[in-house]
Amino acid sequence: MTDDIQQQEIENELAAADAVRPEKFEYAIRIRGLRNQFGDAIIHDGLDLDVRSGEILGVVGGSGTGKSVLMRSIVGLQTPTAGEIEVYGKTLDTITDAEESRDLRRRWGVMFQGGALFSTLSVAENIQVPLREYYPRLDQRLLDEIAAYKVQMVGLPPDAGPKYPAELSGGMVKRAGLARSLALDPALLFLDEPTAGLDPIGAAKFDELIRELADTMGLTVFLITHDLDSLYATCDRVAVLAEKKVIAVGTIPELLATEHPWIQDYFNGPRGRAAASCKQATERQDGKS
Ligand SMILES: Nc1ncnc2c1ncn2[C@@H]1O[C@H](COP(=O)(O)OP(=O)(O)OP(=O)(O)O)[C@@H](O)[C@H]1O
Ligand SMILES: [Mg+2]
What we know:
By secondary structure, this protein is of the alpha/beta class. The protein has 11 helices and 10 strands. Helix 4 crosses helix 5 (140-153), helix 7 packs parallel to helix 8 (228-234) and helix 10 (261-268) packs across helix 11 (270-288).
């Protein structure tokens, strides 16, 4: 690609990125009256949710309550039966212009439940998949540079780039998945159970990384998790999915003040209390140092 065209593409990208800067939108995502149904099974019914720009929103709910389906609906992989989903003021399924749809999709990165790296591609090649899709004219040298930068950004050693997923530890696979979801410098990041399967130290480090990246890049994060420690460590607010809708959304203290039995069981059950006391201990320690 000639330098002129490359420069023009970079300028277009900067303008597009500027259009979705968090300060321009109070809400990155607005969902109203969402309904999802598979055959007779109604997963969501009348679900409303607002995700504020720049926040890390934790999404919790029992297994099978439709957290992943909700995420897939937002990113356009699942067509809802009814309702409206707006991302940065635009409704994906009413966009008819391919360019506009591409511009919107390019603003988010997704890490799916289970990671799902391409096993036949190296880490660097995995990271380059979305780049090649959106910028087919980028030359290999630049693709390699971007991949190396993303590898570094997620705290992987530089020699992880040429490795294949099977050669990595579970924690490294998660980081590689995160690197791929950050390939396009998204404004909005969707993470579906990113710490599942990690040991507690690996999970805590991953939480720290997400918090740090979100703060430095001004990201909005939609974080589905079962991990109570993650909720305490990373989330600004938490949305609770139950009874086919979001039954509550707020900070953890706000949720604790609600009477709902599932919420009480979840946060005040043995694991919830352990996570809360661990958080308090960390705060006391930070206060001392
Ligand atoms: N494509 C599909 N076709 C039919 N049913 C589906 C489809 N996708 C999801 N479901 C059903 O929708 C329900 C919600 O699934 P989903 O994967 O969103 O749950 P979840 O809250 O993410 O659970 P987990 O915590 O176990 O990941 C489940 O009963 C699932 O079987
Ligand atoms: Mg799921």
